[in-house]
Structure prediction request, 364 residues.
Amino acid sequence: MSASHATLGRSSGQQFELSIGRIPLRLHVSDARMLSEASERYQAFASSQEEPFAIHLKNSFSANGGSPEFAYDFEAQTAALRAFSAESQFIGAKNAYALDSLLRILLSWVLLRHTGFLLHAATVVRNGRAYVFTGSSGAGKSTVASLSPPGSVLTDEISLLRRENGEWRAYGTPFWGEFRAAGSNSSAPVAGIFGLRQAGENRVEALGPVGLLRNILPNVLFFSGEAAANQRLLEILGQAVKEISGYHLAFRKDKTFWEALPS
Amino acid sequence: MSTISNGPWQKNPALAWREIDDETVIISPTENVMHELNETGSFLWKKIDGCRTAAQLAALLAAEYEVTPGAALADTEALLQQLVSSKLLVPAGTATSGAPR
Prediction:
């Protein structure tokens, strides 16, 4: 893992640079309290890299010429996102929770150009490989994470998967689950994706590509209703399920489930 | 009696689809539901181009799979009906839009 630092207090406004799944981002925040909250929340992911995707926190939208390539509005219209090719505006984000939500929404869209996606999943590294455990709330993501050795959990809530140099890697993200702590800013090649179900005994069943897609699709984070974006997402997911081994995992709530997993 | 119209059909422009192995997977952005088509369903799906009618699609199916014209038409109309019910298929010329899921 490379050394990281925050960039603060430039004359043009205050900034915080971070990287999630090797996607460099730069937050431009004029409000000192918000900057402090963001710096604290994303400290483990602070990183300065070339050509970061700029994110401007604003109270209102400014057109800057041209229409956004991606727009998202919260239902209650408390916050909104407008994204262009290399920068984005977060409008009305008043606290770290809103910022967190907008960051997830933006990342799900930016990842389309990096052959990646966000998945509701806990990821645990074992013998240098990432075991990705996916499922809806209550399926057991945090349970699996809590039954894994300290330091091996990349995230207990939202995993970032992307294809790099011909292999799929899973990354931790700063998005919190029941651990109430940011994930790990590191990655490992994916050993497999496991669809979770808590049961009285441990059992693993291999899934074919279509079965794996059926399993992960409800747990993929994506917010665009635009047909081309959805088509791109499906192309990425289609490639993922053909190249990553997939399984159903029925598991007992103790550490013995690791013995049932393929090595 | 079939309730499928005699006019041409098109795929719903708002959806996403691709082939995986021998199956076709279709996802509707509005419902986040995954639909799967088998080999013959995939064959017909790929032939739906906004110009062909049910009868023309059935003729292609009959020629490809050596089934009687009557059986091919019945199978084609059944599939089209199912696709229409799931909003994956619309009459040609229909404009639709998606929504975040």
Q: What stands out?
A: The radius of gyration of chain A is 19 Å.
